[in-house]
Amino acid sequence: MIPDLSRVPGVLGRIARRRLERVEAGGLRDARSPAGRPPSLAEALAAPGLSVIAEVKRKSPSEGEIADLDAAEVARAYARAGARAVSVLTEPEFFAGSDADLEAVRAAVELPLLRKDFVVHPSQIDEAVALGASAVLLIVAVLGPLTGAYLEAARAAGLDALIEVHDEREAELALEAGAEILGVNNRDLATLRVDLGTAPRVARHVRALGFDGLLVAESGYRAHEELAPLEGRFDAVLIGSSLARDPDPEAALRRLIGSA
After folding, report:
1. What's the rounded Cα separation, in Å, for the pair 57 and 242?
2. Looking at the whole model, is its pTM more than 0.90?
3. Predicted local distance difference test score (pLDDT) of residue 28
4. Which of 92, 198, 200, 256 has its CA 20 to 30 A from that of 222?
């Protein structure tokens, strides 16, 4: 059940193919399953108002080095500021993340955790469980027709899945696959360009098709004013670089959500 990554274009394709190489070379990491069931991402995002998924992020292909941070400390800051979930990058080469970051954050906060990675192999579902994640990211542009199979595998493992799309066509594929949490990325992962009009446009499209699940807007949000168009349309927003690079991530998140 390995996706055909030869069809994935641009930067996203390079990252996905390299991730598969590393996964196949390294196999499943030996990680202890945490005690108890992690909190539900879906339940957290279904709470009233616009939920924030705040991201632990050191680096990205589009912005280079972002922050030399302590994952656990940053996650605690996000929790104090009102984040309802934390996203943790675990891709090591392009984003300087690690499985150790996810384990450290799991020990530091009681919030739901999204394992933010490029899932290209079924073993990564098992890894997410062992590391204490509440949910995995499944990217339609990477998984293509296998999106539904990976979603079923995640559910069978007791995980929620954030199904990420970038346009209307991918959104329709996600709905066919049975997505319940749909993330719309404003960043074109082939070119890395950001258009904040993407998420609202795709959201209108899927709601018109009858999608009644949870909607998450992703990428590019840096100011409180930019969140206003999301109110009432989205259940959550995922914010990474603008928070992670701030020397005071707690204050940065409070400013962003207007609680400072």
Report:
1. 10
2. yes
3. 52
4. 92
